[in-house]
Design goal:
The complex is a heterodimer.
Chain A: H1 9-22, H2 42-58, H3 85-92, H4 104-115, H5 121-129, H6 140-148, H7 154-171, H8 195-208, H9 210-222, H10 228-237, H11 247-253, H12 259-270, H13 276-288, E1 289-294, E2 297-302, H14 311-315, H15 326-333, H16 340-346, H17 359-363, E3 366-367, H18 370-387, H19 390-399, H20 403-406, H21 411-424, H22 433-439, H23 447-455, H24 466-472, H25 478-482, H26 488-498, H27 503-527
Parallel strand pairs in A: 2-3
Antiparallel strand pairs in A: 1-2
Chain B: H1 7-11, H2 17-25, E1 32-38, E2 43-48, E3 56-63, E4 66-71, H3 81-91, H4 103-132, H5 134-165, H6 175-187, H7 191-206, H8 211-230, H9 237-247, H10 253-259, E5 261-277, E6 280-289, E7 295-303, E8 317-324, E9 333-335, E10 339-341, H11 352-365, E11 371-381, E12 386-388, E13 394-396, H12 401-411, E14 416-423, E15 426-434, E16 437-440
The chains are: A mainly alpha, B alpha+beta.
């Protein structure tokens, strides 16, 4: 026996590889020991040995790049996750969801809707979330991928997904922010090192116990290591269940060294009627601003062109330009009344009632110069959005229907607005735009609006082409998505009514009716759950 | 009554992702009319409203081992989106049972039966002819064997020449160097070896720093195949068949049916995998006998943009006879028409060590084996792409991102039963069981 036969297989293999690389013409093949095989030439012998060796290696030699790494679990390697083994176990696996699984038919429907990224998926998820069932786990990854592009479905999706969804979302960076929509976040989320998990927990906890949640935030203020951005988000989270008892803390946050935190505090304080801050701002508004009317014209003037703000005024955020871009702020600084926009944005909108004008009238107002007029408008706009004021939002929608304003409308105001849109657009040239504008509402169209749309049909465009018809219902068949399914019979009846004269219209109405029926059917599947 | 398929199963029939999406869009009752399903004939039909004035007429045979589709649409995809939509609708239970077939469906079913009978008659005639002229058949086989022998001798010379000169030169395994060798093997009627030789180029480019190991391994296996062929007559008969198959001599399905080993059992469908290979879609379906514990693999092919016609739902159980191909390690098989049986909740599984041992045992018999199927019980996947079993062994998972996330979602960090292909590079998960239901990954 020569020395080489004592070599182990894992020592022979590299020799074989390096010899093959150089070539057997230049280097004698290694004696492969018990892996040596015969061959007529050195090269053939090397290949035969390699055949034997590679099978041996593939069959499970540890440490080779090719074989499966089969190593034992090292005890204590998970020690860093926490000293409590039960907690570590809980983090590693999802809690049990005792709710029943969605019925097979529903799951199948959901599978198809996700696969086609259907327009009716949000509606279906919302309905499915109400059944109190859980979604099959294998559907969660595609649903999560869908939710990355659609914020609106996340709350319903997380309800449907349950603890399994929360666990899964945490495993993937791209989904991890969804955990804040979970119905019940983990108890240890507050001690997580990921800010969004803490914020998600805080938002949830605030909804359950506002006072205790505020105490958590106050405690966090005492501890170092919270980034300004995170602390600002904590203040923002207090918007849930905001009440007079939050005022002392928010008032103290006005002295925070971070601009972001102060901005959030100002924002919340402005929505607290009767707070000291709100009173101060209202008093400033009434003493600095004057509103004059002359016939229909309204003029808003800044009485007192203060050039130097007092320390108290700066503390309340005047002149900070919260919502402005860098450029806007620079421009504003050149204006005598550079604090004007901040003043309006942070003053309770109710303070304007003193002038005896409606929001709509104020929105039509002019000012001494263009900059002041624009600043006033921007101020009202941010005040409306911050204070979620429905009356002002309606006045804004009457001018320009931005979706953020539409969201603030109560149902009854939304219906009024929709009817206005359809009535305004009841001409053969502009009714196309009605569905597109209506879709911005982001919720099912009110029944009277659908009736008005249907009523417009025979009168609209006697020689409609197919394109016109498609446009009438919006580009992506907005009617199919937002009309309540209960309208299917009415749509079908309308189709029959006009079939003789308007066959193209009738066909499109047939399609719409079929779509509505499909939706009704899908929703009915869920009702029987 | 035979079971309706699940939506996931229907989706697995789609030739590609866009058709799956388009099919899902049609999986609602809206565009459909005159639909029906006959359980006895496993036939499904309906009219789908398209952009034209005439609706497309769709007919589908959902017999498990004999899926077929017909549609009047001009799409070259197969099955087309209309067939997929109709199947989804059926899977959702929205199509009523009917005993009477529409005329066109009856005609289609009849013509299919005619064709099946004719092709059976043809193959019977062919077998008869071969039986009538055993000398001629033997002569042809000998001619091919000689051609293959010459081709493999050339290949072996090329291999040893490369190793003698050294394989470090990057030109050795460039496409222009390898392709003539592969072409020569195609001419020599050894397509199986030709494909292996072609994959040498990618073995070099895709293995990173360890490419010398990958290339030498593949060289060695090719050399072994050449050696085996030159000594074919000395090998045991089953091993001879294995070598023939590796070389690329296709097996006559009728011959297998006549002489193959038959195992009657309740066959549990463990998993299926589709892979695109050389203008074809190759589908593998693995089953395990409930009593015998035998593993079987069915192989089916579909042309480009077409899904293979053989589609068995994962998790289903068939009471059937499996006819195994003759091989040193019998795995590939053909299923004789079987009946759907009571579903088995979850297959019994072993440990990762057992899976590794199974693969090692398979390699010991057939060194050209790429992987060996295994069911692993109480396995926990993690997001780093590893699978850990109850004994604490780990193995890397080989799968794409969506499959890994589906596996993680179903497991939720809890132990699950997983079926997959155990290879030397890791474990490719194909099916996972959760709450008694099989989920294809």
């Amino acid at each position: 026996m020569n020395e080489a036969s004592q070599q182990t297989g894992s020592e022979v293999w590299p020799d074989l590889v390096s010899t093959a690389l150089v070539g057997t013409d230049r280097r004698t093949p290694p004696a492969a020991g018990r892996f040596a095989a015969s061959g007529d030439s050195p090269a053939a012998a090397l290949l035969s040995s390699a055949a034997l060796m590679s099978a041996w290696r593939r069959a499970g030699s540890a440490g080779s790049a090719y074989s499966a790494v089969l190593v034992g679990e090292q005890d204590g390697s998970d020690g860093s996750t926490g000293s409590d083994p039960a907690a570590a176990q809980a983090a590693r696996s999802a809690a049990l969801d005792t709710r029943p699984l969605l019925p097979t038919a529903t799951s199948a429907r959901l599978t198809a809707l996700v696969a086609s990224r259907s327009e009716s998926l949000p509606e279906y998820l919302e309905a499915a979330a109400k059944t109190g069932c859980r979604a099959p786990a294998e559907l969660l990854p595609p649903l999560f991928d869908y939710a990355r592009g659609s914020k609106a479905v996340r709350a319903d999706l997380m309800t449907l997904a349950g603890p399994r969804g929360t666990w899964l979302a945490k495993q993937n960076q791209q989904w991890s922010t969804f955990t804040r929509y979970a119905s019940a976040p983990d108890a240890d989320a507050w001690s997580s090192d990921k800010p969004h998990e803490r914020i998600g927990y805080l938002t949830w906890f605030r909804g359950k116990d506002p006072a205790a949640a505020r105490v958590l935030v106050e405690e966090a203020w005492e501890q170092p290591g919270h980034a300004a951005e995170t602390r600002a988000s904590y203040v923002e989270a207090l918007a849930v269940g905001l009440g007079p008892e939050d005022e002392p803390f928010l008032e103290s946050a006005l002295d925070d060294k971070s601009r972001q935190v102060r901005a959030e505090a100002v924002r919340l304080l402005a929505t607290l009627p009767g707070s000291r801050f709100a009173d101060r701002m209202a008093a400033r508004l009434h003493s600095w601003v004057e509103v004059a009317t002359e016939g229909d014209a309204v003029l808003v003037t800044v009485k007192d062109q203060k050039l130097q703000l007092t320390e108290d005024e700066v503390r309340d955020g005047l002149g900070e330009g919260w919502v402005q871009t860098e450029d806007e702020r620079r421009l504003a600084k050149m204006q005598p009344a550079y604090w004007f926009e901040d003043l309006i944005a942070a003053t309770p909108l109710a303070a304007w009632e003193r002038f005896g004008l409606s929001p709509a009238q104020l929105l039509r107002s002019t000012a001494a110069n263009r900059w002041e007029a624009a600043a006033g408008h921007r101020g009202w706009r941010s005040a409306t959005l911050r204070q979620r004021d429905a009356a002002w939002a309606e006045a804004f929608c009457a001018v320009n229907a931005a979706s953020d304003m539409l969201e603030l409308l109560p149902d009854e105001a939304a219906e009024r607005w929709c009817l206005g849109v359809v009535a305004d657009h009841r001409s053969q040239y502009s009714i196309h735009s009605a569905p597109i504008i209506l879709a911005r509402l982001g919720r099912p169209w009110p029944d009277p609006v659908c009736e008005a749309l249907l009523a417009a049909i025979p009168k609209y465009l006697p020689n409609a082409t197919r394109n016109d018809v498609a446009r009438f219902f919006g580009m992506d068949n907005l009617a199919g998505r937002w009309m309540p399914p209960s309208f299917a019979p009415a749509v079908a009846a309308k189709a029959d009514e006009i079939r003789a004269e308007q066959p193209l219209w009738a066909e499109d109405l047939d399609d719409l009716a079929a779509m509505l029926r499909d939706r009704a059917l899908m929703l009915a599947e869920l009702d029987v759950v | 009554m035979a079971e309706r398929w699940t939506a996931a199963q229907v989706n697995s029939l789609a030739p590609d992702a866009p058709s799956q999406k388009a099919g899902a869009k049609l999986g609602v009752p809206g565009p459909w009319s005159d639909t029906g399903y006959q359980d006895s004939g496993r036939l499904l039909w309906g009219d789908c409203k398209g952009s034209g004035s005439k609706p497309y007429q769709v007919t589908v045979s959902v017999a498990d081992s004999d899926t077929a589709y017909a549609c009047t649409c001009p799409s070259r995809k197969f099955p087309c989106k209309h067939a997929l939509g109709l199947l989804l609708l059926w899977a959702a239970g929205s199509i009523a049972d009917s005993e009477t077939l529409p005329e066109r469906v009856q005609a289609w079913a009849d013509s299919r039966r005619d064709r099946a009978e004719k092709s059976a008659a043809r193959s019977a005639a062919k077998a008869e002819k071969a039986a009538a002229d055993p000398e001629g058949a033997a002569k042809r086989a000998a001619q091919r064997a000689e051609r293959i022998g010459n081709g493999l001798a050339d290949l072996d010379r090329w291999l040893t020449d490369q190793v003698a000169a050294g394989i470090s030169d990057s030109a050795t395994l460039s496409y222009s160097a390898v392709d003539p060798v592969a072409k020569r093997l195609v001419d020599a009627q050894a397509p199986g070896v030709a494909n292996r030789v072609r994959s040498l180029t990618s073995a070099r480019s895709s293995s990173g720093d360890s490419w010398p190991d990958a290339v030498l391994t593949e060289f060695a296996r090719l050399h072994l195949l050449c050696e085996a062929w030159s000594r074919l007559a000395d090998l045991p008969p089953a091993m001879q068949d294995t070598v023939r198959r590796r070389v690329g001599i296709s097996v006559d399905a009728d011959a297998v049916r006549r002489s193959g080993e038959r195992v009657a059992d309740r066959w549990h469908v463990l998993g299926t995998r589709d892979r695109a290979a050389e203008k074809l879609t190759e589908r593998r379906i693995w089953l395990r006998g409930a009593q015998s514990g035998r593993l079987a693999m069915l192989l089916a092919f579909g042309a480009m943009q077409q899904a293979p016609t053989l589609a068995l739902p994962v998790g289903a159980v068939y009471r059937a006879e499996m006819v195994f191909h003759s091989e040193a390690l019998p795995l590939r098989a053909q299923m004789e028409s079987g009946e759907v049986d009571v579903v088995i909740a979850e297959p019994e599984g072993g440990t990762l060590q057992e899976a590794a041992d199974g693969f090692a045992a398979a390699l010991a018999v057939d060194p050209w084996q790429e992987g060996w199927p295994a069911v692993v019980a109480s396995a926990v996947p993690d997001r780093d792409g590893e699978l850990r079993d109850a004994e604490g062994c780990r193995v890397p998972l080989i799968c794409d991102e969506p499959a890994l996330w589906r596996l993680l979602a179903v497991s939720g960090g809890h132990p699950v039963t997983v079926f997959g292909d155990y290879t030397d590079a890791g474990f490719e998960p194909l099916t996972v069981w959760s709450e008694g239901a099989a989920v294809a990954l």
